[in-house]
Each structure stands twice: as C-alpha cells, then as structure tokens.
Amino acid sequence: MNKKKGIFLVITGAFFWGVGGTVSQKLFHDFAIDVDWLVTTRLLIAGILLLVVQSSLKDRAQVIDIWKTRKTAIPLIIFGLLGMLAVQYTYMASIDHGNAAVATLLQYLAPVMIIFYTVVRKQATLELIDLWTVSLALVGCFLLLTNGSITQLYVPIPAIIWGILSGVALAFYTLYAIPLLKQFDALVVVGWAMVIGSLALSFVHAPWQMDFKSLTLESSAYLIFVIIFGTMIAFWFYIESLQTLIAKETSLLGSIEPLAAVFTTVFWLKEPFGIFQWFGTACIILMIFVIAMNQDSTKTSNQE
Q: Is the pLDDT of residue 295 over 70?
C-alpha cells in the first residue's frame, strides 16, 4: 500500500510540474503576466505553504534549527539564490520566450551537465553508459531545436539560452543541496529556499506590484494552479514519494513531467511541433531512462 501511495504521489507531482509549465506559458502569452512577478509570487506562497506543512506534519523544530548556525544558514541562502531562484527564473524565462515543452526538455539536460562536472572534477570516471547518455542528449537537443534542419533553428534563441541556463542551474541545485538534505527534511530546505529566492526577486518586482483588477476569473484560476498545484503540491508530493520509493523509481516515474509538458503544449496550446522534434523528445526521455536505470538505488533523488 505504501508503494502504491508513493507511485501515486510521484506521478501526480511530476504531472503537475509539467502541466504547471504549460499553464505558465498560457499566462505569459495570453494574459501578459510578468515573468518576474509570477516567479516572485509563486516562490513566496509555495515556500510558505511547504514550511506550514513541515510545521504541521513533521519535525517543527527544523524550520528554525536550520538558521541557528552559519554552517547551515549561509549554504541555505546560497542555495535559495543560486539554486532555487536561478532554476525557477531561467525556466520561466525560457517558457516566456519559447514554450513549456522546449524549456522543460532543455532543463532535463542537467544530468549530462552533472556528468561533465563530476568527470572534470575527477569525482567520477567517464564510462560507456555516460557516453550513451551524452550522445542521446546531444542528438535529442539538436533535433528538438532545429527540427532536423542544419541551416536554421526552430526555437527562438533567447528561449534556448534561458533553457540551457536552466539546465545549468538545475545541475547546481541538485549537487549543492546534498549536504543540507542530509541534515534537514527536504520540505525545510526547499521551503526556505523558495522564500529566500522570492524575497530577493521582490526587489525587482514585489508581489504587490500587480494590477489585480485586470485579472479575469480564467487567469486567476491559472495562477492558483501554477502556485498551488504546479509548485507547492508538486514539490510536496515528489518529496513525500521518496519515503516509499527508491531513487531509480522516482526518476523513471518523474519522466512524466517532460511528457506532460510536451503533450499539453502541443495538444492544448496548439504549439507547432515537428516530426524531428518528436524524435528529439524521445531521445531526451530515453536519456532520462538510461540515467535512472543506472542509478545507485541508495542515492537520494532531488528535483526542480
């Protein structure tokens, strides 16, 4: 029963993540919602709610304990700014300039970046499976961005740049959080990181700097979905699934996120998606499966 619960949680969380990106695209393109404002508001509300969940259902003391020493407080601030805020902003900016499908798939290049980082730092050796992973990522990325053409890009350059930066940010996010996650519950680390990121971005665009009268019932519903379901519940469910599933299982089931983003972008928002882009998507999804199948089952998984 616990295993079934874990599977339900990770599938639901990953689905909400993927659809949340597509709904954000709807807000940017159809309702002219500002990227800075959405990221700030999304992180602030979702972060506070995650900390409330931690205080209500888990070890409440950890919410304060993480701030008691410089050894944890300073890394938490760095993680909030260079990890959480960076990955959320670059991802949303990529969606704003392009679409949710491409942004999500580019973000999933993070595992390849981690492979390069660990090899360069001599923390790991380059194995045959790594070469397969990199090859799938490069082929998939080429087909996704060019739709098979060798003379032109099928995706706006700003969307590509922000998407690649999102992958870099997710790679940092994944690696840097490990020491904190060994000491504190994931809800504490992720919740505070969201709050920190939102407070920093508030200096650029504060949550209250918004013409709320311009919001329609439809756009308000989309905002609630992105903030509550696409952020807070998605993170919560994914993190909770780690209690009953091993990292390999969560990674495999988590691949529903890019699939959800692609299908909702193409079939709901009617974004054009060429045949070679579908092949590129398949390559990147296959890359996720290859990485997941070769994960050490004792490792802890971590997501955007």
A: no
d(CA 53, CA 107): 28
Six-digit token pair at 271? 């974004």
State both tokens at 290: 């290859």
For residues 258 and 284, the answer to whether their CB atoms sit within 8 Å is yes
Contact 42, 227 (CB under 8 A): yes
Say how far apart CA 200 and CA 192 lie, in whole Å: 12
Distances (CA, A) of 278 to 142, 154, 204, 235, 245: 12, 13, 37, 27, 30
Domain ranges of the chain: 2-293
Angle ∠(250,255,257) on CA atoms, nearest 5: 110
Rg (the chain; Cα; Å): 19
At 230, list the tokens. Answer: 């696409």
DSSP state for residue 202 in the 8-state scheme? T
CA distances from 262 to 53, 127, 188, 206 (A): 31, 30, 31, 31
Torsion of CA 260, 263, 267, 273, to 10 degrees: 140
Mapped to the 3 state alphabet, what secondary structure does 205-258 carry? CCCCCCCHHHCCHHHHHHHHHHHHHHHHHHHHHHHHHCCCCCHHHHHHHHCHHH
What the block records as the tokens of 121 is: 């730092």
Cβ–Cβ contacts within 10 Å for residue 180, how many?
21
Q: Rounded CA gap, 48 and 32, in Å?
A: 26
> Tokens at residue 175, please?
């690696």
Q: What is the pLDDT of residues 172-221, one digit of tens each?
A: 998 999 899 999 999 999 999 999 999 999 999 999 999 898 899 999 99
Following CA atoms 155, 158, 163, 169 in sequence, which dihedral angle do they give, to the nearest 10 degrees? 170
Q: Which two tokens stand for residue 278?
A: 């579908």
A 10 A CB-CB count for 252 gives 17
In this prediction the pTM is 0.91
